[in-house]
Amino acid sequence: MPPAFSAAEKARITRLLLDNGLRLFTTQGLRKTSLEDLVAGTGIAKSTFYVFFDSKEALYLELMLGQMAEVKSRVVDGALRKEPDTRAGLRAFLHATLAELDGNPLYGRLMTHPEEMGAVVRKLDPERVTSAPDNPVTALAAYLTEHGDDLADDDPEVIVGVLQAVLMMPLHRDRLARPDLYPQILDRLIDIVATGLTRPER
């Protein structure tokens, strides 16, 4: 029978598990992180981990959901929706999202290792991610629907795919003929994409 924990103990151990998970998932990934790694320093046995989370994927998802509101606040509310027009909004969104991927270890990991998100979704209910009120992807889709009159006549999924392609640029910066020009190349690419995805300014 698993041990009983007071509310304070449960909160403390949950916080330690989340801290361990964030450190381990972002440095060595979901697959290479063991339950033994996750419970290290928490004072609980591996079997007791399941009192707190159903699986290591559930812990990973909890970390993602915990950061979702902050990410949305920065890339959607503070960038995309802050600009007065759609073209400037898309530019700001791409710059803010690239900064987020560079400075946020967990979301940066998800971009460079999408199979980890796939593993989480396969094991858990994907609805928990898609229906989360602060999901940046859902918020982006809503914005594109609202601003459809300002956008080129592309399928919205094509537009999202183009934006995703720009967000993959950091993975390939070393393949450029002139990696030292990466910041200027990225700025120009974002300009071209934002212009190409929107109708001419009226």
From TrEMBL:
Keyword list, A-Z: DNA-binding, Transcription, Transcription regulation
Which SUPFAM superfamilies has this protein been placed in?
Homeodomain-like (SSF46689)
Q: Does the keyword Nucleus apply?
A: no
Keyword Transcription regulation found: yes
Q: Sorted alphabetically, which InterPro entries does this protein's record hold?
A: Homeodomain-like_sf (IPR009057), HTH-type_TetR-like_transc_reg (IPR050109), HTH_TetR (IPR001647)
Task: Please list the residue ranges annotated as the HTH tetR-type domain.
Answer: 11-71
Output the PROSITE patterns linked to this UniProt entry.
Answer: HTH_TETR_2 (PS50977)
Q: Which residues bind DNA?
A: 34-53
The name under which this protein is listed is TetR/AcrR family transcriptional regulator
Q: State the organism's lineage.
A: Bacteria, Bacillati, Actinomycetota, Actinomycetes, Streptosporangiales
